[in-house]
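Fold it.
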Amino acid sequence: MFDRLKTSIAQGKIAVTRSHANRDVAQWAAAQGFLCTVAAEGKGFGLTGEVGDKPWKMECGSASRDYIRGRELRARAELRIKEDVSVVIMNRSLKEVLEKRAYESYTDTLQTAAAVNLTEEMRWLAMYPEVGWDGPPQPFWNRYAVMAEHSHHAADWLDPLLAELLLSWPQPGPDAQVPVMLMLLRGKAYLRMQYTPADLPTLAHATHIFTRACQSAIDRLSTDLAI
């Protein structure tokens, strides 16, 4: 009985903490001009806004990938950029994890080629080669890998401000081991990351990264631009 009481008190503290955190998120979102919705019992929230008159949405909730621990931030925007643009940015530690999993799947003698079930992220590693170019500083390349079908699309998209934002997380903030992915695929922009630490400075910076990524893609990779 005492154990159940302690558990109930602990759960109550967690619920109160989440409630306060989500209230802070809602107040911050209103100040930024974003719409904010909070899930029941403080289990997550959603943000919506616009960049370059294109709508975007960000959600915080339970992880949808097993390489993400705890809470996850997911964002998506319909940008209507060139459909042939395929660029994936991820931190190198995550790339190494996914490459190891893909290798183990291919070499597992208990699996046939037809039975290998690669995740979407593993397929990206197989489909898009890693690219590089002069411009972003070496600390960026140390921390992140960039994969793309066409390297010039990646170079056009990753402007100096976006590269700087990906390196300048607030402290304490996500370190180089925390999974972060930023993508342009099928005319859309996506963000997926482990929400660690789960605090307002991290959320604000992740939102800044995503909206900057959207704006850069609109400015440099729009279907309205001459090919």
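The two ends are 70 Å apart (CA to CA).
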